[in-house]
Amino acid sequence: MESRAEQPPGRDWRDTVRDGADLALVGILTVLASAPVLTAGAAVGTASAAVHDWLSTGSWPTARRTLSRFARGLLPGLPVTLLGLGGVGLLATNLVVVATGRVPGAAVGLAVTTVVATALLGYAAAIVVEVGRTGGIGWRSAASQAARACLDHPATCAALAGTSLVAVLLAVLVTPVAVPILAGYTLAAVHAVARRRALTRTELS
């Protein structure tokens, strides 16, 4: 089956509306599945795999396949969730400390922390894309692949970081009820950026 990028033209506004509604539903379901917190890793991995399927084949996985992926991803996603929460908490604490001037050289510390946080955001986005390519599981191999991709192609990591940063800023600015919808669009955006950067590298090589 042809990928979405290779499909012949002929799509109209109804297809765009349908795609937008599908992505909004993915975001809403992902947030709902992440509500118990410890299931967040499995939820994100499953959603990333669904978006990968959609971009690759033009169709979404069945509900049965999605539920199977979610169930298989619960245990592998648990340490990922805990590490993610710990990392976010540590960075947030560091930002608060340096932003309030409680330590010497707060301006430099704030700049360094912001750069590190942005780089980690790009790396995290790369991991999410990679785990989506393996059916929502295999977080350890996804982390390794993402690290290698970011080191070999820092522009891709920067593009993913920028995309994710825009999503974070939008999440702060929009009404809270729109955040779940934004989650689906963000997943699609990071997948699209990773694919586009890969195609660009192939064309230049």
Short characterization:
The chain is mainly alpha-helical and about 200 residues long.
Description of the structure:
The protein is an all-alpha fold. It has one domain. The chain contains seven helices and no strands. The chain has helices at 13-34, 40-57, 63-99, 106-132, 139-152, 154-173, 179-204. Helix 1 (13-34) runs antiparallel to helix 2 and helix 3 packs antiparallel against helix 4. The two termini are 26 Å apart. The model has no long low-confidence stretch (mean pLDDT 87).
List the helices and strands and how they pair.
Elements: H1 13-34, H2 40-57, H3 63-99, H4 106-132, H5 139-152, H6 154-173, H7 179-204
Keywords:
single chain; 205 residues; mainly alpha; 7 helices
Query: Count of helices?
Result: 7
Mean pLDDT: 87
What general outline do the C-alpha atoms trace?
Answer: globular
Largest sheet: none
Distance between the termini: 26 Å
Order of helices and strands: HHHHHHH
Q: Kindly state the percentage of residues in helix.
A: over 70%
Question: What number of structural domains do the residues give?
Answer: 1
Strand content: under 5%
Rg for CA atoms? 18 Å
| Number of DSSP strand runs | 0
Low-confidence stretches: none
| Class from secondary-structure proportions | mainly alpha
